[in-house]
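Before a computer can learn anything about folding, someone has to put a protein's shape into writing. The outcome of that step, for a single protein, is printed below:
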Amino acid sequence: MSQRFHIRRSEQDDRRWLSMLIDAMEETARPEIRNVPCDKQARAAVEAQLARPAVAYPWYGSFFSFFN
């Protein structure tokens, strides 16, 4: 039973996260927001983050392996 609750909680969190992402994208798509210049430091930070290699699910990763 605790596993079912955990799965439901995770699905609820995923939906909440997705809803917040959609709201943020809709907000930034508004013309009055798009015409505001972006802060150079914020842009540089985003570019640096995007330049890093992608890691698939780093929070679920583990150093344990059956092959070690």
Notes: The helical segments are 2-29, 31-34, 40-51. The longest helix spans residues 2-29. The two ends are 34 Å apart (CA to CA). The CA atoms of residues 20 and 26 lie 10 Å apart.
